[in-house]
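User: Could you check the structure of this?
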Amino acid sequence: MRITKRTNIAIRLLMYCAANPGKLVTKTKIAECCNVSENHLAQVINQLSQLGYLNTQRGRNGGLNLAVDPSEIRIGDVFRSIEVSAPVAECFADTDNTCPFTDACRLRVALAEAADAFYARLDRATLHELVCGNDALIEMLSPARCTQDRLPV
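Assistant: Sure, the predicted structure tokens are below.
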């Protein structure tokens, strides 16, 4: 299964926010630290805020933070919300399905079972589990470190 760039960015963004609790973080700092474009990041921020995962605050002292406790954010739910438009294979698409074997294909059944197992595993993972106690990740996502790593030599 291939994860879209948007979902990858969403998980990085959520991990960044979880690693910096109680702080308003900026899009610029997140983009720098997570190695993503600000334009793509802005789209993901908008989507995650509409889904209720993020609080956003505009203006000079603005930024964003988690709207939900990390222990309540199930990674499977995030994936489903972001990946909703990406079928596992052509035969799962409502439109543009040109496969002549769809009605008799056993691969489709196997892929559906594999996708169910994939999401079942992600449903057991929370944002808290990805970040809490992960000192190496928290250090990588520290705003101070992101700035230090990019200073000219």
